[in-house]
Structures are given as structure tokens and as C-alpha cells.
Here is the input.
Amino acid sequence: MQTTSLPETAASDALFERAKKVTPGGVNSPVRAFKAVGGTPRFIERAHGAYLIDVDGHAMIDYIGSWGPMILGHNHEAVREAISNALTNGTSYGAPSEGEVRLAELVTKLTGAEKVRFVNSGTEATMSALRLARGFTGRDFIVKFRGNYHGHADGLLVEAGSGLMTNADGLGRSAPSSAGVPHAYASLTLVADYNDPEGLRRLVAERGHEIAAIIFEPVVGNAGVLIPTPEFRAALHDAKRSGLLLIADEVMTGFRLSLKGACGVLGIEPDLMCWGKIIGGGLPVGAYGGRADVMDFVSPQGPVYQAGTLSGNPLAMAAGLAVLSELERDPGIYGRLDEYTSKLAEGLASAASEAGVPLAVNRVGSMLTGFFQAGPVTRYDEAARSDTAAFATWFREMLVRGVYWAPSQFESIFVSAAHGERELDSTLHAAVSAFATLGG
Ligand code: PLP
Here is the structure.
């Protein structure tokens, strides 16, 4: 196979060597280390619009968008201004401020949640929502789906997706998916298959009375993109009859697929929702919310404890407000994102087919995964059959050509409002040559 050599990365290489001496694996989140695709991770100096610029001066079309938050593109003027203005008033108070009320008002208005609580990450949001569900129902068990990822809280690192699908131990491990998670803890997490309505119905029929909540990605991004079938959505809804709570993890899909998230697009009615990423406009924010009778169980109103030194941070609230206000002001953004990503999907499929490379493209709105296999891919076990070696080669070939794709087969890419015709043409041009190196 003829592949192209990587361009000069001396500055990134040097930083990575320094980083490895002082940080495990040289990174602060595993997928960033490029372990699944090889090569040195690029260290980023700055970002603007649709581009990341690394410390060696390479400008790359960015399809990660900080793993989702940057829906408006990097360094967006309105967001930058909002953060600068907030900064003049100090950085953290440890006491309530108006920004928290305004963002909560906007989130409840847009999503239909009756009450929300802000935290500092998606992980905190899902962890807190599950504690709340357990406190509300008085039950201990939860259900999650194989290949869904809900952050790194102990009870959720059970057959999880995202970086856990490509870590050194490979696919399909049984619970727990990480060392350090007590088996006793993992045993409270029941695992079912996504898009297997019969399996879910059986589980709920047998154990529904013990289950506090089902947590799920309403469109999966963390096994690559998987779309829930109508039958599966119906089984989720029917499960509520056993008194459990449905928790939609909209950390990735919230405000990305629509102002009402994936649930809004697909007509799913959860009891609780979790958010992260876009809700913080690129600053560390998460949130959970939903039915008022459930949310009123959260302290100080109710008995379920949850707190945070930096929760509701004024800079983070300002950034989140700026992004959500922009999306609300210009809802046409979603149509434009859809158009770009659908052209990207078509272009990738035709470039792959031209080169004789099997590729199954799954896409919803501005989320997309090209699985290196013939497909179709609707379930986790099908996603896991992808040719990860071919993907890794393709990833490196794209990077050489200035396109920064997600460095794992089992991730979604994210398009931003700053991606335009120029970026689409360059991406597809790069893709044609990258697929050609595989096909040849
Ligand atoms: N839930 C989903 C669906 C996610 O995709 C992620 C992160 O990618 C999380 C939760 C965890 O969010 P965070 O990384 O902010 O803790």
C-alpha cells in the first residue's frame, strides 16, 4: 500500500515528549493521544472558524469541534465578547448570579425541561441524574446500552463506547470496562443492546420493578453514529410503565441536532435529560433537568445531594448563553449544517466507492461516521466489525492533507456553522486521494 509521509511535526513531537514525562500518556483525555490511529497528536496553538492551527503552523479543517461544543465554529465573535464582558466582573463567586438564572430560563424554554441544575461536565450531569433517579424511585439498578458512553463515572464504565472501544484491551469486554471500577458497583448496571427492542422489553419485564432508570444516547455518537429505530424508541417509552425514569443523555446531541436536541427531532419524551458540550459554549459546563417533581428531589429542596464549587461559573454561563442565544436567533443554522453534512456524506460515499473501499456512512444532521465496512450499521456489534486498520490509514492520509478527522473509527465527527463550500471542496478532494491510497 502506497501511503504519504506525514509533514513536519517537530514542535508537536517535542511537546508530546515533554507531556509524556508529566502527564499519563501525554494527554488529559485518552482519545487525544492518537493511539487508535498512530502518529503524534498535533498540539494546537489556536483555532479559528473551521480551522485548528497546530504548533508547527499547519492549518487543518477541524471536524472535532472540541468533540461537539463548537457548533458556531472556533473563536466566534459573540462568544468571545460575552466571555470578555463577563471577565471584567470577576471569574467565580461561589454565590448565585443572574447568568445562571438566564441560562436556566433559556434551556428550559428551548428543551421543555421544567427545571435544570448546572454542573461542570457531561460526566457530572449523567452521574447526578442517575443518583437523582435512584433517590426518586428508591431503586438501585440502572440500565445502559452496550457502546453508549455517558462519561467516566464508575457505574457507567460498563461496556462503554468512545475511547473505550479502541483501548488496548480491544472490543467487547464484559463489565466493567475500566480497571478500578468495583464489580459490586458495575453489577448495579444492567447492560442491554441498543436497537434491540425485544431484548429491552424482556429485561424490563423481568427486572423493571428493580430499575431506577434507563440512560441512553438518543442518537448514539460514541460507537460511531447509530440511529434509534422506531421500534426501539417505542420499547424505551413502554419501559416507563414499570415506574423507572427515562434519562436521555443529550450531552452530544443537545442543541446540535435541533434546539430541542435529538429527543425533539425523534419525538422521544424522557423524564430527565443531560447536557454538556454546546451548553457551555466551549467552557466546562454540564446540566441535567426535566420533570419538576423529580428535580425537586435535588438538594437543598430535596434529599438527593449534589453540589459544586464552580457550578454556575459566570464565565461559563456567559459562553453558554451566547451560543444558545445565537442558535435561537438563527435557527436556519440547523438547515445549513444539515446541507453541508449531507453533501459531505454523499461525497465520502462516492469517493470510497470509486476507490473500491467499503464504507457505510451514518449521518444525522451535523453528526456523521463513515464505518469502514459494507454495512448497514445499526447496532454496536455491527459497528465493531469495522476495519479499524483501514480507518487509521485513511485518518493519517486525511491529516497529511490538512483535514483533522476524529482519531477513532468509533466517534462521530461534528460540522460547524463556520464550515463552507471551500472546506467541503478541500475535504472531499482530500478524501478522494486518501481513499485511493487504500484502494490501490
Ligand atoms: N455523555 C455523552 C453522550 C458524551 O458524548 C460524553 C462525552 O463525550 C459525556 C456524556 C461525558 O461528557 P464530559 O466529557 O463533558 O464529561
